[in-house]
Amino acid sequence: MTPIRWLLSLIFIIQMYLAMAVIAVVFAPWALFSRQGARAACKTFCRWVIFSLRLLCGLKSEVRGTPPTGECIIAAKHQSFLDIIMIFNAVPAAKFIMKRELMYAPFLGQYALRIGCVPVDRGKRGAAIARMRADVAAGSAEPGQLIIYPQGTRVAPGATLPYKVGTGLLYEQLAQPCVPVAANVGLFWPKRGILRKPGRAVVEFLAPIPPGLKVQEFMARLETEVETNSNRLMAEAGFHAP
Hints:
This protein is an alpha/beta fold. It has one domain (about 60-235). About 50% of the residues lie in helices and about 15% in strands. It has helices at about 5-35, 35-55, 80-90, 110-115, 125-140, 165-175, 215-235, and strands at about 60-65, 70-75, 95-100, 120, 145-150, 180-185, 200-205. The chain has a seven-stranded mixed sheet, sandwiched between helices. Strand 3 (about 95-100), helix 4 and strand 4 (about 120) form a beta-alpha-beta unit. Helix 2 (about 35-55) packs across helix 3 (about 80-90) and helix 6 (about 165-175) crosses helix 7.
């Protein structure tokens, strides 16, 4: 790690959060009265991060596969904040299952709620599933792509963490296709630390899993597809999981 690369990474992080604040304030009047305005603010922030990340850190972003445009579940590998940004930017109407404590994060929490994200207490994911099921039954759920991270948290490259059955229950109850997403972004934007490494960060939308599978069968297929393809993407970048 050269000092200049570390310094540029620090500058990137500082300006990223400054940009979040500026964009949030500028878009606030529109976002207050329109979910479209809130979503436009989030898209603007994502695009700025992708641009400035390449400019300052030499890290390019690539989206592979076909991002879904209709209602579906997106079950993604989660390695860092960057996969959130890239996936959200790639689909038209994303909303996340998110940790409840993020509701209280300045700007981020307020905008997340405004675009329809569902806050979940740790260890109480079933409550979020019940809420989503009730919303769909009542016809009040905002159409879009519901993004969930099946492992429940960021997982560093090479680390293992079980897939939680909540994703399978959500898949069963909503009866929507599920689009798995693989990623290698943790190689360049780590779970912790300041350094952002140059290279090509990739998220890949895989073939949808149609509705109707048994939960156990779905979970096994989802884990195999996401992990196998994430390992392939990381191997392309020179990393081989133990």
